Amino acid sequence: MESYTFLRAFADSWMLIALFAFFIGVCFWVFRPGATKTYESPANIPFRHEDKPAPPRAEDPSEEA
Questions:
Q1: What integer pLDDT is reported at residue 33 of this predicted model?
Q2: Structure confidence by residue, pLDDT tens digits, 6-57
Q3: 26-50: string of b/e by CB count within 10 Å (b at 16+)?
Q4: DSSP letter string over 8-58?
Q5: Residues 52, 54: Cα–Cα separation, whole Å
Q6: Domain positions in the chain
Q7: In sequence order, what are the residues at sequence separation of 6 or more whose Cβ sits closer than 8 angstroms to the Cβ of residue 39?
Q8: Which residues make Cβ contacts (< 8 Å) with residue 29, sequence separation at least 6?
Q9: Predicted structure pTM score
Q10: What is the pLDDT of residue 61?
């Protein structure tokens, strides 16, 4: 039971701090000043074909039902 107690104490303290620091780091990475250009195109994917439907794609014979 010694290893369980040690791992439980580690998870309750240091791993919680490490995961929180990782989360904050990811948030800062996404909202950094230079990220606007990077995420502008993916953010507009739902609105690309708002005025007209997407062009028909070529039928693939392997996709038959």
A1: 85
A2: 889 888 889 999 999 999 999 998 888 888 888 888 888 888 877 777 677 7
A3: eeeeeeeeeeeeeeeeeeeeeeeee
A4: HHHIIIIIHHHHHHHHHHHHHHHTSTTHHHHHHHHHTGGGTTSSSPPPPPP
A5: 7
A6: 1-43
A7: 30
A8: 35
A9: 0.53
A10: 60
Encoded tokens for 43: 């953010």
Q: Indicate the residue type of 3.
A: S
**Which tokens hold the place of 47?**
């609105």
Joined tokens for residue 45: 């994917």
| Dihedral, 45, 49, 55, 60 alpha carbons, nearest 10 | 40
